Amino acid sequence: MSELKHPSDEEDIKRHAPANAPAVASHGAAAPPYDSASLTSGEVVCPPHTTERKITTKIDLHIVPFVSVLYLMAFLDRVNIANARSFGLEADLGMGGDQYNTALTIFFVPYIVCEIPSNILLKYFSPRVWLSLCCLGFGAVTVFQGLVQNYSGLLATRFFLGLFECGMFPGCFYLLSTWYRRHEAQKRFSLFFSSTSLAGAFGGLLASAIGKMDHMRGYRGWRWIFIIEGSFTVVVALIFFFTFPMFPEQTTWLRDDEREFVKARLKASQGHSGAERKITLRDVKTVMSDYKIWLGGFMYFGLIVPAYSYAYFAPTIIQSYHYDPITTQLRSVPPWAVAFGFAMIVATVSDWIQHRLLFVIGAICIAISGFAVLLTVHNNLPVQYAALFLTCMGTYSAMPVIVCWFNMNLGGHHRRAIGSAWQIGFGNIGGIIATYSFVSSDAPFYHKGYAICISFVCLSALAVVLYALAVVWENRRRSRRPRDLNLTESEKVELGDLNPEFRYML
């Protein structure tokens, strides 16, 4: 370390790279720059029997469909209570006042607290085992939710639903980030994240069909919604126990030379993953001492409030336009479908020009415009319904870009596992706020709810701008410093994105 010329760099390395870290390479090898240009430098060579495009397609087919279906099931089982509400849930269980809002809130207690522990367990057990177990758990709880006889039973099932679902979102994002380079990740992240849009659309269609089973075999329609959708999730979980993907280092469907190529291209883009090291409490403390991690949490937190407000209360808002229950469910489908298409367009263009900031700000502006219309227009149903499209499109296209941007700017398995879980866990505190933003006493105009949503979207925009300034400043600071600091590979692994060779994406 005698060649270090800047005391601040040396102090940073000493603080984040323990002296007893296991060495994995010699001192003399300097890692290539962490950007896509490294892939054309001749250091990462594709196996002769295939091409990089074929390998990427193979990865897509083995990863994206599985995580998308998994999260579709999770989100569907989470928000189908909004559909059940339209079919007599509250009346049958004797609920009144803000009890529905409380039932929504209790879900987030274990969901928030257990995010980081879940990602640590995911790394320990492997994604296939851990995420399949979680899927089986929340599928079974959803079935039980359709069998409850009172409000207390509903609260209990909502609590355990949050406990089993806590690992889905950060776990799947964590898994995706270990397979793709930064400039190609957004399309995959958005396709996965847009499972929420598909769940909203599919949930509305399914609820409208299941609602016609009202009183069949003595069960009300809302019970059938939970029972049928939960049973389907259980079947999916059993299949996933044998088929769900794992980390690149653990996979068996790649040849040895293909696996080494995938690991090499990821290292060129993101640095050494450090998949072989365990995550410790010291790692958690180190990651959480980085102010950029906190900004990442606030970026997501600000959008969770409008996102869950829409997911949980869109059927209620649409029903306030004097539609019957079946028509309400059908009317809830188009905004979700349009949001899915728009999110994929945003993701594709974002990956193409390798930029995130402007797409987030643009989508946020669309969301604000939608909520502003809903806040001020109360006597024009076509305009109000069109505003629902804007809020759904803007919110659900900005969120996946924020999560992808933040996750792919984290280097190393340990920093990514902790950082991604923190962002999702902290952000979901906004879910608690969302559950009390639209209360029955504010119907049918919901001035308070729309004003709260606009405020939190603006908070997200502020955090986005601050995060962008932070990464630009950090990149410029590192560019002014010597690039080759004679770091060992083990020190680079420990530093992750704090490595002076790492460059953040804007």
Written as H for each helix and E for each strand, in order along the chain, the element string is HHHHHHHHHHHHHHHHHHHHHHH
Stretches where pLDDT is under 50 for at least 5 consecutive residues are 1-42
Q: Beta fraction of the residues?
A: under 5%
What is the total tally of β strands? Answer: 0
Rounded to an integer in angstroms, the radius of gyration calculated over CA atoms is 23 Å
Shape: globular
- Total number of distinct structural domains: 1
CATH topology: Growth Hormone, Chain: A
- Average pLDDT, rounded to a whole number, is 82
Distance linking N and C termini: 31 Å
CATH superfamily: MFS general substrate transporter like domains
Biggest sheet statistics: none
Examine the secondary-structure arrangement and name the CATH architecture: Up-down Bundle
- State the share of residues found in helices, binned by percent: over 70%
CATH class: Mainly Alpha
Structural class: mainly alpha
Number of H- or I-type helical stretches: 23
Organism: Thermothielavioides terrestris (strain ATCC 38088 / NRRL 8126) (Thielavia terrestris)
GO cellular component, one term: plasma membrane
Subcellular location: Membrane
Keywords: Membrane, Transmembrane, Transmembrane helix, Transport
Secondary-structure blueprint:
Blueprint: H1 7-16, H2 52-85, H3 89-92, H4 99-106, H5 108-113, H6 115-125, H7 127-145, H8 151-165, H9 168-177, H10 185-193, H11 195-210, H12 221-243, H13 256-270, H14 281-288, H15 291-319, H16 325-331, H17 333-353, H18 357-376, H19 381-408, H20 413-427, H21 429-435, H22 447-479, H23 489-495
Helix pairs in contact: 2-7, 2-9, 2-10, 2-11, 2-12, 2-15, 4-8, 4-21, 6-7, 6-20, 7-8, 7-9, 7-12, 9-10, 9-20, 10-17, 10-19, 11-16, 11-17, 14-20, 15-16, 15-19, 15-20, 15-21, 15-22, 17-19, 18-19, 18-22, 19-20
